[in-house]
Amino acid sequence: AMLRSLGSLLCLWALRLPLPPAGTVAATRGLDVASYRERVRAMFYHAYEHYLESAFPYDELRPLTCDGQDTWGSFSLTLIDALDTLLILGNVSEFQRVVTVLQEGVDFDIDVNASVFETNIRVVGGLLSAHLLSKKAGVEVEAGWPCSGPLLRMAEEAARKLLPAFQTPTGMPYGTVNLLHGVNTGETPVTCTAGIGTFIVEFATLSHLTGDPVFEDVARKALKALWKNRSDIGLVGNHIDVLTAKWVAQDAGIGAGVDSYFEYLVKGAILLQDEELMSMFLEYNKAIKNYTKFDDWYLWVQMYKGTVSMPVFQSLEAYWPGLQSLIGDIDNAMRTFLNYYTVWKQFGGLPEFYNIPQGYTVDKREGYPLRPELIESAMYLYRATRDPTLLELGRDAVESIEKISKVDCGFATIKDLRDHRLDNRMESFFLAETVKYLYLLFDPDNFIHNDGSVFDVVITPYGECVLNAGGYVFNTEAHPIDPAALHCCRKRKEEQWEVEDLMREFYSLKKTKKFTLKRASNHGEGESAKTPEDASSEKGGEKRNSKKSSHSLLSCPSQSFNSKLAVLGQVFLDNS
């Protein structure tokens, strides 16, 4: 079963409609992709180096005063959030240094009230991603990796601090927990929908790597509680009482307070090959189209009646076209994306709220804190379509952020897009998400975009397994999770599998083909840098674990899904 799941994940990336080379379509609009990629790299280091100089070990940089502040719990949060971005940019030496710094300096046994949601997506997600990328970054991993390791233990420790929040009659978690004492007496039981339904990616990954099912169990129970409490017309509200399951805020939409719940149903389905999660999302999607969609915009409606309550577009909703691409709904995704892009071009960024009928910002919601969501959607859609309009959004984002937001000590939140006043904050997601998605938009050959033809074989206590084959699932903070890793640490004998089975499938499919085993190409600092693993292989002539062939050789076995899921945005029906 695990072999079939891995095979389907790999082939979902490998099978796609023929697309013109990225450089070809970019050239048709005169956009220099390589130049913008290097400008994004420079943006990252301008922000990152000033965080290290002026703000570390605080959570975030205050770029106008060149100092730091703790925001989400005193975790050196920007350093954790930026870690996997370092590797995507090719900086293996700094990745290795930061891993050591985090092991020595981060302590979760502190008397701090922390957001359960934010700690999960930023800290647990960031540490899990960095753990799974450690070997690729040349970190000397311990025996048993990826089923053990210091970053995995840190992620598990952080997640265990969150578990008391889930001890409610409904299984839906409190929004805040004290990392030393658990849930405070008198803590409000009202939590937003996203704060309940955004755990399955990180917590299922933790359960699969550690063998402890408690994390996935609580995440699933919370998801199902929301599903159980949807309205008769199939919608969920914005905030709910986790003790009584009574909806406190009954506005239904795809934006703030709800957004990543829908995102995690889709990404959880992809990560876990879980039909139930996808079925839940598809039912929600029908209700969302029926009641909230108007002319390719999505409004806010009353969850029980479906009547419009707020005719506004929120910048957080800009993730939706990217999510649509994951289920293959490309046409609708592009139409909605183009609506959102017109707002960007009107202001040079996305205001937090935009009144659709009036075509202008909403009072006290005119700011743009350098959010990534529209860029995220552009990255996904560009992988699916190669439409040069998506590169143009990336270009506009680079130009706007540099012109409006760049200051001597980093990049500042834009307090008001109308007059470009700035605020003294640089959120950690700027380095975790915004810069990362921009870079991946302009770097079509990045290892993150691997189509499954390159992979690594690693030895675990439970046998051999395949990693780094592509199909990465980004959590809602843009931390990539390797789905193949979830099959490396199975402790039940009947679920163990061996890479020899995979190789036998390779050779049985294409007996007449000759296979050339080559070391995988890697991306380092600049165009030609190599990871330490490359160098050691070249010097010592060791047995190489990275394998590459000129063709994608995995078949897609029949799945129980009516439509197979594809990160690249294409849908492959069972009879295709």
From TrEMBL:
It is found in: Endoplasmic reticulum. Its EC number is 3.2.1.-. This is alpha-1,2-Mannosidase. Transmembrane segments: none annotated. Ca(2+) binds at T476. Belongs to the glycosyl hydrolase 47 family. Residues 520-557 are annotated as: Disordered. Residues 522-544 have a biased composition (Basic and acidic residues). Residues 1-26 form the signal peptide. It comes from Eubucco bourcierii (red-headed barbet). GO terms for biological process: carbohydrate metabolic process; endoplasmic reticulum mannose trimming; positive regulation of retrograde protein transport, ER to cytosol; response to unfolded protein. SUPFAM superfamilies: Seven-hairpin glycosidases. One of its GO terms (molecular function) is mannosyl-oligosaccharide 1,2-alpha-mannosidase activity. Involved in the endoplasmic reticulum-associated degradation (ERAD) pathway that targets misfolded glycoproteins for degradation in an N-glycan-dependent manner. May initiate ERAD by promoting the first mannose trimming step of ERAD substrates, from Man9GlcNAc2 to Man8GlcNAc2. Seems to recognize and bind to exposed hydrophobic regions in target proteins. The active site is at E118 (proton donor), D259, E352 (proton donor), E373. Its cofactor is Ca(2+). The keyword Hydrolase applies. GO terms for cellular component: endoplasmic reticulum quality control compartment; membrane. It comes from the Eukaryota. The gene is Edem2. Keywords: Calcium, Endoplasmic reticulum, Glycoprotein, Glycosidase, Hydrolase, Metal-binding, Signal, Unfolded protein response. Pfam families: Glyco_hydro_47 (PF01532). Its main location: endoplasmic reticulum.
